[in-house]
Amino acid sequence: MSLPSTQQQWVIKGQDKGFDGLVREEGPVPQVGENDVLVRLYGASLNYRDLIIPKGMYPFPLDLPVVAGSDGAGEVLAVGSKVTKWKKGDKVVTLFNQAHQAGAIDARGATSGLGGVLDGTLRQYGVFNEDGVVRIPANLNYVEAATLTCAGLTSWNALYGLKALKPGETVLVQGTGGVSLFALQFAKAAGARVIATTSSAEKAEVLKKLGADHVINYREDKNWGETARKLTPGGVGVDHVIEVGGEDTMEQSLKAVKYEGVISLIGFLGGAKPKDNILEPLSRICTIRGIYVGSRQQLEEMCAAIEANDIHPVVDQKVFTLDQAKEAYEYMWAKKHFGKIGIKIE
Ligand SMILES: NC(=O)c1ccc[n+]([C@@H]2O[C@H](COP(=O)([O-])OP(=O)(O)OC[C@H]3O[C@@H](n4cnc5c(N)ncnc54)[C@H](OP(=O)(O)O)[C@@H]3O)[C@@H](O)[C@H]2O)c1
């Protein structure tokens, strides 16, 4: 099959026009270097991070203009002369921080994000270093697999990156976004208990179907952290908190956590203004750990666990096409989604 010389892609041009800074254009199909793979992308998905880049709210390094999107999955079409890991036809998912291979992230790893510093996945063809992709779990389709890059791996890193989750422990997940739903699924597969929060009775039912042991409505119960603590065996508190609300939720997360428990500070959906609780990790004897996605090694371990446990990511019922990417951004910004937003790439 001969390759076209150009392709459709979405490029972030600036940070001062909101989603109008995201522009659809025709771009070149990139050339494969000797250590690279050329991937025909068939699936992508969105993260809150993708939305706040054109809105100028993203706190991590950027190098604009850049092809948008970190999450992608597809098929290897060609490999460079020195590539040993992959062959034509292999099915792969992208690694978020391309230079974060294993262990702790360093400055190089933190400045190698797809769709931020390096060209991302909202396009038909991408070239990645052979270590910048991982085999997709055999039980997943391309759109499902694409959701693993950011939200999936971040949850996995939260539960296994510092203090590995054990069966019988308790995990607190906040809301029904992509990161929290992955954490719920991983925790249940690991034999842990899950306490989930949400703002709606309808979503509470879905959380229970996904295996949540307890669901608390955080709008009705303002002291939900204390409630979560009381729901743990002996009232000692939760072992892991998946903290995605930031300013809105940290106070309650601190109330919920057990001595020596871990609060994984992942997001700031409810704002990022600092609160005057600097000594609380001391008085509550807990760890608050900032997380920036995860490594290739963790992505491989997570994919193995997903395949072994036949876990399917929760993807919103409305799946978009590449042409409709901007509509997908608007849909997510309007908070109409449940779980991950999928984009099919024709
Ligand atoms: N550090 C990292 O490496 C990393 C990686 C991935 C994501 N993140 C961040 O993690 C956060 C979550 O990402 P996501 O993709 O899961 O987002 P998402 O899919 O947009 O999550 C939306 C859901 O979060 C819940 N929520 C929103 N505001 C809340 C609040 N103030 N308090 C409690 N829950 C709230 C709501 O659940 P209900 O509708 O059920 O109430 C909402 O439906 C974002 O801030 C994102 O930027 C960080």
TrEMBL record:
Membrane-spanning residues: none
Single GO MF descriptor: oxidoreductase activity
Protein name: Enoyl reductase (ER) domain-containing protein
PANTHER family: PTHR45033, ZINC-TYPE ALCOHOL DEHYDROGENASE-LIKE PROTEIN C1773.06C
Tree of life domain: Eukaryota
CDD domains membership: MDR7
Domain Enoyl reductase (ER), chain residue ranges per copy: 18-343
